[in-house]
Amino acid sequence: MAGKRSLTTLQLDSLLEQQDIDSLVQQLESKHDPPVKPFLPNSKVNAHRTNRLWKAIGAEPHADLLDSWTEENLEIFDGNIENFIGTTKIPTGIAGPLRVNGLFAQGDYPVPLATSEAALVASYHRGACLISAAGGCTSMMLYQALNRSPAFAFETMREAGQFVAWSMEVFDDFQQQANATTQHGKLIDVGTTIEGNHVYLNFEFTTGDASGQNMVTIATQAICDFIQENCPVPIKRLYVEGNLSGDKKASSQAYTSCRGRKVTAEVILTPEVLEKYVHATPRQMIDYWRMSAIGGVLSGTMGVQGHFANGLAALYIATGQDAACVAESAMGVTRFEETSEGNLYASVTLPGVMVGTVGGGTGLPSQKACLELMGLHGSGNSAALAEVCAALLLGGELSIIAALATGDFTKAHHKLAR
Length: 418
Prior knowledge:
CATH superfamily of the largest domain: 3-hydroxy-3-methylglutaryl-coenzyme A Reductase, Chain A, domain 2
Enzyme class: oxidoreductase
InterPro entries: HMG_CoA_Rdtase (IPR002202), HMG_CoA_Rdtase_cat_sf (IPR023074), HMG_CoA_Rdtase_CS (IPR023076), HMG_CoA_Rdtase_eu_arc (IPR004554), HMG_CoA_Rdtase_NAD(P)-bd_sf (IPR009023), HMG_CoA_Rdtase_sub-bd_dom_sf (IPR009029)
GO molecular function, one term: hydroxymethylglutaryl-CoA reductase (NADPH) activity
Protein name: hydroxymethylglutaryl-CoA reductase (NADPH)
EC number: 1.1.1.34
Radius of gyration: 25 Å
Mean pLDDT: 92
């Protein structure tokens, strides 16, 4: 996180144009007068509480936030937001149809993407059309698991070891406690990490058709309550999450295992279909992919890929997923090769796509509509949604790599973003 002399000097010169160092230091001091009056915490959504918040802000309700439709349907947002003052509208475009030949996703999917970034939908649409013209891509969800990692502090390493030994003996009890908290999730495994006199238990769950973060938190809390009551070793401190799970962070642990749904997708493209849809040859695509892969390695990225986060963020927002999970979901590998017939083989693999088709924001009106547009709202559809995610990102990789390989990347942004 170090800053170079040139950047530090530029920042200082900018700051000192209008004031001296002493003034800047004074500006950064704590200020207690007048005291800040916090907004009243508000977890329920209704007209009375929303109007009270607008009064606390000291402004009239803004029509672009609290429009007439939102005002008439306030209570549908209850349970998804606190301190509610309105809704934010994000442009939503459609890509595809995207043909997916998966274990769970079978068909031609119109893919809604919510974004304010010009050229993004156009790029993914081009990639989706390319894949569909080739007969679709093969996409497979390989497995699904979600973890939560409580942390325990003991007096000595010996006690930490005793605790781990006891934990392995009572795993069936852990399962009983966890499974009693949910009809959809199941505790399937636990990993152990000892660091001095600290222990992290990394519990792995299946979560049905939900993304499942809240589900596994509640289940893990039930296990922790059982541990506190029954552990034969004195516990100094206990935390329901010790930051080992990798929740909403890119981590090597999630990259090399599975957190969410592990998916992979592939397609084989002939020179003719590449020329028609992206004006590139297999050799151009492979040459650029190889150089960009080395660039990714040199920069220290987790995996090697072009822009997984673009498509995931837009799809997550459109379909009511937890957008912060893009931080961990957008890891993986893109690979291009030439087949013996001279075609392009392209694949993507993502170890942790965090998606669900029930719970969270998936029941909100616009988000539910986007899932229904794909035929993927509700129970029984989360695996198919994960396979569509992989297919979409494969299309995005093909499109952006073709644009960069042929020199069209800048032209497209000039045309669509200005």
